[in-house]
Amino acid sequence: MFKNKILNQLCLILALSFSISACSGDNEVVDATGFRPEITNAIGVNGYLWRASLDALSTLPLLETDSSGGVILSDWFINPDAPTERLKVSVFILDKSLRADAVKVMVIKQDLAEGVWIDSSVRAGTSLQIENTILTRARELRIRSIEDK
Predict the structure, then answer these.
(1) What average pLDDT does the segment 45-73 reach?
(2) Which domain, by its residues, includes 60?
């Protein structure tokens, strides 16, 4: 029960970060390189998915980002409310198209038991929920860029 609550809180944090960023007065949609996603072919993956993924993981410490390969890896995140549990999130952007099957999210969870971190199961649907959050944000970015033209 407590573990599900922490995972729910992580998903809520990700969703809220999108809501807050949508309130920004800046209407210019740019990707991580500072350019509009539709003209950033150099990054090797869909610019909207790339930006949306970075937005989704903005509350987590990032370990590695590779825009040409479409890989974003977070470092371990420990929620202060659950210090015996930590999560690591990986996002893989698999295509240059804005499609549902172009993004894959993997979540790894560990629990602290007797001073040792041990792999444990993630609540079913957590990865899919983050993928849907990324796809929703990517579609919002795409729509905003069309409206700005």
Answers:
(1) 94
(2) 2-147
